[in-house]
């Protein structure tokens, strides 16, 4: 018997499948059940989802009773990308996290205030990106779990303090990261060594560029590293260049936002699907729902690379901001 599920079901199902924490899975599953119309055709589906919800709640309750301590370095992934903030003491990582996310880390002038990583969600237009404030870099020791956390991030940001020897900070940061087997290159043409697992191309952000009086210092830094690496400047104190910082993060993550459109309806421009650059219509269809991937007949596109409503093939490469109508 057909279920005749509403479009809201598939949107909530997407969020349920993307949920990482048990509580998030429970809440989205409850929301998913609420979207299902009550008739004989959906009895089996609703019963199956209720069983899953019951198991999730039992597992969450059992975990609470055991009272096991989880590592502070085990942070659930959220949002459209994970960004690790690294740097020397007092460069402003915690201030950046406090001002641009919902997190409340301890902010202090004393060095080494941050002892464990702290996550927060930063809004970039209509998507969320996860920022993680990490403990200051130290030559002496780095927790193995911290090393893996930094390595596993989609983007590394090396934060510098414009008002406190940024050149030395950059050199120290790169040297310390490499000493802890985190391969870093600040230039696009430097190859990875044979012993490295992954070569990280960090975004280098110069903090505390509070006003125009510091333009000369920032210009001198850029001139010194001309043709080697580029810098983004900002101020967590005054909010200067925050928009440029967010755009630089978005571009460095190499992602695109794609919007879905139902036939005869306006697209939902508030809840984009996020894909890596180079993603195709076929990959988008699979991200919307697995049934679309199998049953897809045609796709129509509205975007900068096509005329409105143009029919495109499965292997068409999508661009940021494209609107796609899938017909099954």
UniProtKB/TrEMBL annotation:
InterPro entries: Beta-grasp_dom_sf, DRG, GTP-bd, P-loop_NTPase, TGS, TGS-like. Gene3D superfamilies: 3.10.20.30, P-loop containing nucleotide triphosphate hydrolases (3.40.50.300). Residues 256-327 form the TGS domain. Residues 82-178 form the G domain. One of its GO terms (molecular function) is GTP binding. It holds the Pfam family TGS. Coiled coil: none annotated. PANTHER family: DEVELOPMENTALLY-REGULATED GTP-BINDING PROTEIN 2. This is GTP-binding protein HSR1. It comes from candidate division LCP-89 bacterium B3_LCP.
